[in-house]
Design brief:
This is Alcohol dehydrogenase. This protein has about 240 residues and is an alpha/beta fold. The protein has helices at about 10-20, 35-45, 60-75, 95-115, 140-160, 160-165, 195-200, 205-220; strands spanning about 1-5, 25-30, 50-55, 80-85, 125-130, 165-175, 225-230, 235. It has eight helices and eight strands, in the order βαβαβαβαβααβααββ. α3 crosses α4.
Length: about 240
């Protein structure tokens, strides 16, 4: 598994759950190096080889392809790509779209070079982290919500192209989760200065509860699924 942003709030707990499984390699790509977290993941299950590469999802597509060449040369086989990078700050319009959507599209596009069965590739599985805001917008953060709707739509298209590419795809869409992402953030045009505070009044789930359902979704590996991970539960939703 290659996990983009596997050291974030939900990401790190998901990485902890993944290494407990019968996994050969977990390759974490993240903007910030965290040697203590990598050491912890290695200690959970010494049978899993955990490696880290610095990676910023806003890097150009050519740079992403170059990094993946290095990883594929090392591992030979990669089965799953998890795209998990995300920011929540509607003051940073271009960066929100670049991190939440463009970066995810680029990483997906780059890995198709190695997986696409039309090029002799073996196929693969893409798991994209969306958000419940992708189909139920938090209207005070329309840029963030729209970027997550784009993730859901893009992933549905990838899933429908599986018969051509051999690459299947699905989204996991967390509800409000106790992470640093939601402690304090800016609404679009400051339409609601207390948006983080108001969000905090709603029921939330822990990152661990979300991570456990996240890994279940990966194990189920249902092409085209839109998983809603909210309040410690997992539900496949219909979205047309």
């Amino acid at each position: 598994i290659i996990f983009v942003a596997g050291l974030g709030g939900i990401g790190l707990d998901t990485s902890r759950e993944l290494v407990k499984r019968d996994l050969k390699n977990l390759v974490i790509l993240d903007r910030i190096d965290n040697p203590a977290a990598i050491a912890e993941l290695k200690a959970i299950n010494p049978k899993v080889t955990v490696s880290f590469y610095p990676y910023d999802v806003t890097t150009p597509l050519s740079e992403t392809t170059k990094l993946l060449k290095t990883i594929f040369a090392q591992l030979k086989t990669v089965d799953v790509l998890i795209n998990g990078a995300g920011i929540l700050d509607d003051h940073q319009i271009e960066r929100t779209i670049a991190v939440n959507f463009t970066g995810l599209v680029n990483t997906t596009t780059a890995i198709l070079d190695f997986w696409d069965k039309r090029k002799g590739g073996p196929g693969g599985v893409i798991c994209n982290i969306g958000s419940v805001t992708g189909f139920n917008a938090i209207y005070q953060v329309p840029v963030y919500s729209a970027s997550k709707a784009a993730v859901v739509s893009f992933t549905q298209s990838i899933a429908k192209l599986a018969h051509i590419t051999g690459v299947t795809a699905f989204t996991v869409n967390p509800g409000i989760t106790k992470t640093t992402l939601v402690h304090k953030f800016n609404s679009w045009l400051d339409v609601e200065p207390r948006v983080a505070e108001k969000l905090d009044e709603h029921p939330t789930q822990t990152t661990l509860a979300c991570a456990q359902n996240f890994v279940k979704a990966i194990e189920l590996n249902k092409n085209g699924a839109i998983w809603k991970l909210d309040l410690g539960t997992s539900e496949a939703i219909e979205w047309t």
